């Protein structure tokens, strides 16, 4: 079984110099991230309220 460290440093002569944040990556501007996340936050809040009402109706609390 291969460990994660062995698998990622395999073929590297200087395994300590490896930069995990180097190279290509996908970056999303904060404004776009908030635009996408806002509907999910609202749906989560609505679900929580519905769960609270259902719990009160079911258990009489």
What does this structure look like?
- Helix content is 59%, strand content 0%.
- The chain is built from two helices and no strands.
- It has helices spanning 4-9, 30-59.
- The mean pLDDT is 81.
The gist of it:
The chain is mainly α and 61 residues long.
How are the secondary structure elements laid out?
Blueprint: H1 4-9, H2 30-59
Write down the overall mean pLDDT.
Answer: 81
Order of helices and strands: HH
How much helicity do the residues have?
55-70%
Unreliable stretches covering 5 or more consecutive residues: none
Q: Mind telling me the C-alpha Rg?
A: 23 Å
Overall spatial form: elongated
Structural key phrases:
single chain; 61 residues; mainly alpha; 2 helices; elongated
